[in-house]
Design a protein that fits this description.
The structure holds two protein chains of two kinds. Helix content of chain A is 0%, strand content 50%. Chain A is an all-beta fold. In chain A, strands 2, 4, 5, 6, 9, 10 and 11 form a seven-stranded mixed beta sheet that branches. In chain A, strands 1-3-8-7 form a four-stranded antiparallel beta sheet, with no helix packed on it. The mean pLDDT of chain A is 93. The N and C termini of chain B lie far apart (40 Å). In chain B, strands 2, 4, 5, 9, 10 and 11 form a six-stranded mixed beta sheet that branches. In chain B, strands 1-3-8-7-6 form a five-stranded antiparallel beta sheet, with no helix packed on it. The chains are: A mainly beta, B mainly beta.
Amino acid sequence: AAGVIQSPRHLIKEKRETATLKCYPIPRHDTVYWYQQGPGQDPQFLISFYEKMQSDKGSIPDRFSAQQFSDYHSELNMSSLELGDSALYFCASSFGRGRFEKLFFGSGTQLSVL
Amino acid sequence: GQQVMQIPQYQHVQEGEDFTTYCNSSTTLSNIQWYKQRPGGHPVFLIQLVKSGEVKKQKRLTFQFGEAKKNSSLHITATQTTDVGTYFCVILTGGGNKLTFGTGTQLKVEL
């Protein structure tokens, strides 16, 4: 069965550079979530999209932006990267807004900012 | 914002011992989910609880939702090394799609 695909798996950037993380949800899933997980920390909710519209916003810095495209894939754009942005970024997808359906997570993108 | 505390933060057990993690919310919950994250892996859905006092079992795992729907627990009987990982409860906050993770309980199982 198809799972949530994230790319790239690993990304190394310098301070002040930009990065784009991509997420391809499970087919027919209409909701995408982005989470940031630091070492030994719980995943922190960044933002979610339902049917290509922003649904909820969490602790996402203004330097970050995200969108969901017509094919339901999503991209997280990160600018002016800081050392503290180094983390594992997960994308998850589900079907149905506000229905509290179970989340299917991708394998994550490990971002290292040097 | 709404916080979800889990206790304990860490638990080391000998293989065969039981393990329990507790999830506590400051507000009444509509429902709650549990996820497991293996070291180096991603969170994987375990179960969802909806009803007050609900108890669900999955082999050696028993999940319970409190009567007041403010707390939940996950109990593992006779732990195995395959149970190693961090267990998170997840709640729905906000009106749409904001799913908040609990602080997690990291389980280590020693032979």
